[in-house]
Amino acid sequence: MKADEQRTRQDDELGQDIAHQAPSLRLAISRNRPEEPAGRAAIRIEGLVRRFAGFTAVDNLQLHIPYGEIYGFLGSNGAGKTTTIKMLVGLLEPDSGKAWIAGHNMWAEPVAAKAALGYVADRSILYERLSGREFLGFLGQVRGLSLAETEERTAHLLALLELSEYAERLCGSYSLGMKRKLALAGALLHQPQVLILDEPFNGLDPRSTRHLKDLLLQLAQAGTAIMLSTHDLAIAEEICQRVGIIHRGKLLAEGSATELRQLARASNLEAVFLNLTNRQPEEASI
Ligand SMILES: Nc1ncnc2c1ncn2[C@@H]1O[C@H](COP(=O)(O)OP(=O)(O)OP(=O)(O)O)[C@@H](O)[C@H]1O
């Protein structure tokens, strides 16, 4: 048997092991982390539940993400990532449970919570008849920035995201990747303490992907809390301090990629992920 095949088989067997231990895995890992008081978490979710016509899409979810951390939210198609994010950013009312952004309850103090938040949806919604610069100018007004601040931040972000040469073109004429980058510029305009990104790497070319990874690492280093959902396990492994794996609306495991790999004795996050979620193979479609 070749070394690669042997490692894959070992990963599979060990992964099946942790699949059975899944509920205790998270507890074991969280004991290894210095405790972050929940009240000081940048993003805090307690007991979040959302049902659609009797089907439970998000099932009693708990999450605490501190400032300065990049948290990867992983799950197969339909696992409940977008539903969780929509409840967290105030777009979808939970059936029960609560969510806080920078200490503000999203549903009781939505203005304060949203002021601290930058959010990019999985599908970018832009005003197609505005130019890139006009779009950011409009968002600056919505965010209550002065004209000078808006102009300065707009120029900085357009340059940072390599969009300056397209700034006067209508958003409707942008490519998918350019739209994603402009949406990100919009989310960063008011320098939020908390950034929530649903599939931020979708549609980006390798150069823009590298650029975004570096930008997120810099923002986290400066203290921004970042939660991102992704299907790209290599990216999660590279830039996320912790990852949470959601499946059928429940958090199966949570920890750093290294902790998850060590605990599972698996060679990579993909092996951990596939084996945890393969108990329902028809859903393991990441
Ligand atoms: N408005 C809705 N009405 C009915 N069911 C919904 C609605 N929104 C989401 N769902 C269901 O909830 C489940 C979770 O969906 P969600 O979009 O949160 O998954 P996801 O993890 O983001 O998936 P993907 O990776 O494919 O984007 C799915 O079964 C989906 O069909």
TrEMBL record:
Taxonomic superkingdom: Bacteria
GO MF annotation list: ATP binding; ATP hydrolysis activity
UniProt keywords, alphabetically: ATP-binding, Nucleotide-binding, Transport
InterPro entries assigned: AAA+_ATPase (IPR003593), ABC_transporter-like_ATP-bd (IPR003439), ABC_transporter-like_CS (IPR017871), ABC_transporter_ATP-binding (IPR050763), P-loop_NTPase (IPR027417)
Cited SMART domains: AAA
Keyword Amino-acid biosynthesis among UniProt keywords: no
Signal peptide segment: none
Annotated ranges, domain ABC transporter: 43-273
Entry annotated with the keyword Nucleotide-binding: yes
Parts forming coiled coils: none
Name of the protein described by the UniProt record: ABC transporter ATP-binding protein
